[in-house]
Amino acid sequence: VSGKWVYHQYNYRRAISPDGEWEVQHISLPWGGTCAEAKGISIVEALVPAECFRYESYPGHSPESVEYFWHIKNENKTNSKIASEKGKRGLMSASLESASERVAIAERCQKEVHIAAESKSWTCGSTCGEGEYNGFALYPNRFIVNITSHINFYLSRGVEVTALLSLRDRSISERIKFGEYCLTPEKGKAEDELALLLMEEAMKNHGELKSKGKPHVVPVSYEGMMEFKEVYLMKLYKQLGINSTYVPTFEDGNKKYVKDMAEMSFKKAPKWSGWDTRAFKQKAKPTKPKESLLAKKVITVFGPESSGTTFLTTAVAQAIGIATPRKGLSRQAMSDDGEWEIQHLSLPWGWECEKDKNIDVIEALVPEECFRYERDPSIPEKRAADIFFKLAKKNHQHEGQSPQTESIWDPSKYAQDPEEMEKILKRCRHEAKISKENDKWTCGAGCGGGEYNGFALYPLRFSVNITSHIEWYLSRGVDIKVVVSMRDRTISSKSKLHGHCHIEDVGIKEDEVALDIMKEAIKKYGTGGSRLGSLPGDTSGKERVIAVSYEGMIQMGEAYLFDLYHQLGINSTFVPSFEDGNKKYIADVDAATLAKQKRQVG
Predict the structure, then answer these.
(1) How confident is the model at residue 409 (pLDDT cuts 50, 70, 90)?
(2) Nearest alpha carbon to residue 239 among 260, 269, 217, 212
(3) What pTM was computed for the model?
(4) Contact between 298 and 343 (Cβ < 8 Å)
(5) So what's the pLDDT on residue 282?
């Protein structure tokens, strides 16, 4: 686009920079002709340089001309002139190379790329060409590249290589594939299963977990790219070592595949701020008094409502040994030894949304002992939460009274013992540095005054600024990392409208605020963030904000999860059950549409 790259007109597989410094390769899994014509699933070792690549069915022709012919053939299946053998011979003969040209190219491939049939030290990447094609790698008409061996092929030749794994909602990508690229669903599903296995293997062998420095495999979320746009892209550029400000146009290709709310059938009651995680069966153990209100390490999971934060938080909690109730971790919990605290905050968190209410953005989520709702600070947070969610069920869809006036908020029933409360307040003032009188430290939210000095007071529904949340903990000597959960925007918005906020325009505004908060945090504390290492408590220089794809987690399972554990400094093999919550939102393929597509292509 910017004129810095050289493209072959019909080569969709790669682009190379004029100075030979960079090459970008593009390979779908699988790549090539239609699945109907393929005899089986062919796996090859690597994608070799363009000059050394040939299709085994037409080794004397440039791959670009072969692919262009396939394209013309498929686009014009009913056009007898183009589909005729005469047209085929004319197109293919025009792309024939001279013998001298072919010999010159083959010699370079043998010497520079080490592709030779007689070599015992080097592999060819695919089938080794012989005779006049010695030096070329010959490929089936439709093939899948083994990502692990592809990386090893280039590393063995002294080339720095990074594989980007493009992750997209499985149901949507299957729908597109079966409509455009493979009209035989059985074959298509088998190909996709194999592709996922190869991607998982590559992540395990060359991802974050096994990397000693820069990983050779980087998963990239399509949904995350559409949601965070240039912020996500710039983060990717930094990971790849690319110095660029180029930003393309972003258009969400998923939106048209998601059902309208009228098509949805919700049989179960909504879930309030992420309370349901049936995949986790470990029972919560009784907690013992904490030696310190501040853990040594904090992991906070943020994301818009209905973005998969509950599942992700509960998985990470169990991986670090924090027992969680069957319904999932609510907001925060600490390990028995005080080493870890896991925090879970949807953006926003709390009571249902209400019309004509400002969106409250708070500085930080403080230790749970120091947290109180400003509605009545005398009620301990967990008791208030119980009331809170009972009311949420009772007042479903905004019927009934708001918690502001509900009689169940009777402090005489739920207020904490004054002596017990004063002990907690002292600890909050001394250990967490929360005090209205202290000018050096901030409270994280509204500072409690008088008898509540030491508490941070929160509104009933609020979002937390991730950047200031990180800095609040770093300033207190806590090693904090943040995970931001990304999920298809259209799907999470529809789920939120059903379960968390029934006022559409309010929900949209809340999500926009949440995205702005997450983007700012990625810019400042993500890969190469502008604020990394700027505070005394931040000496590692490593990213503190990690973006996680819900679709990637569901698609790649434990391989994706173990990479996340590694980034968070967690040594665990805990694997939850994975259940795709997106599937029910994807519209089914219309039978008439499928029949029409089959007539056009087949």
Answers:
(1) low
(2) 217
(3) 0.84
(4) yes
(5) 45
Other Cβ atoms closer than 10 A to 299: 24
Adjacency order of strands within the sheet including 332-334: 332-334, 340-347, 297-304, 479-486, 545-549
135: left (phi over 0), alpha (psi -120 to 50) or beta: left
Q: Using DSSP, how many helices (H) and how many strands (E) does the chain show?
A: 19, 22
Using the structure block, give the residue that is written with the tokens 């080339």: 159
Residue positions counted in the chain: 602
Would you say 43 and 51 are in contact if contact means Cβ atoms under 8 Å apart? no
**Residue 588: pLDDT band by 50, 70, 90 thresholds?**
confident
- The tokens for 509 are 């505004």
Contact between 579 and 555 under an 8 Å Cβ cutoff? The reply is: no
The mean pLDDT of 317-345, rounded to a whole number, is 82
Region of 580 (left: φ > 0; alpha: ψ -120 to 50; beta: rest) is: beta
DSSP 232-244: HHHHHHHHHT---
Looking at residue 226, its amino acid is M
Please provide residue 276's backbone torsions phi and psi, each rounded to the nearest 5 degrees: -115, 115
Whole-angstrom Cα distance, residue 167 to residue 557?
12
Residue 586, strand partner residues = 258
Please state, in angstroms and as integers, the Cα–Cα distance from residue 463 to each residue in 32, 444, 513, following that order: 48, 12, 9
Mean pLDDT check: name the lowest of 197-206, 259-268, 279-288, 462-471.
Answer: 279-288
- Integer Cα distance of 349 and 332 in angstroms: 12
64, 10 in Cβ contact below 8 A?
Answer: yes
Arithmetic mean of pLDDT over the chain: 83
Contact 173, 530 (CB under 8 A): no
Q: Give me the mean pLDDT over the 469-489 stretch.
A: 95
- CA dist 583 and 491 (Å) reads 10
Distance, CA of 411 to CA of 301 (rounded, Å): 31
The string of DSSP codes covering 41-67 is --EES----GGGEEETTSTTB-HHHHH
The number of C-alpha atoms within 13 Å of 515 and in the hemisphere containing its C-beta is: 21
DSSP string of 93-146?
HTTBPPHHHHHHHHHHHHHHS---TT-SS---SSEEP-GGGBTBEEE-SEEEE-
Residue 501: Cβ within 10 Å count: 24
Which backbone phi and psi does 484 adopt, to 5 degrees? -105, 125
- Report the C-alpha gap between 422 and 416 in whole angstroms: 10
| Dihedral angle over CA of 116, 120, 124, 125, nearest 10 | -170
Cβ distance 370 to 455 under 8 Å?
yes
φ, ψ at 263 (rounded to 5°): -85, -15
User: For residue 339, what are its two tokens?
Assistant: 């080493």
Q: Give me the pLDDT at residue 410, please.
A: 63
Q: What is the pLDDT of residue 16?
A: 84
The answer to whether 484 and 517 have CB atoms below 8 angstroms apart is: no
Rg of the chain taking only CA atoms, in angstroms: 28
Query: Which residues have CB under 8 Å from 2's CB, separation 6+?
Result: 246
Could you give the CA distance from residue 328 to residue 276 in angstroms, rounded to a whole number?
6
What are the CA-CA distances from residue 602 to residues 36, 179, 182 (Å)? Answer: 9, 12, 11
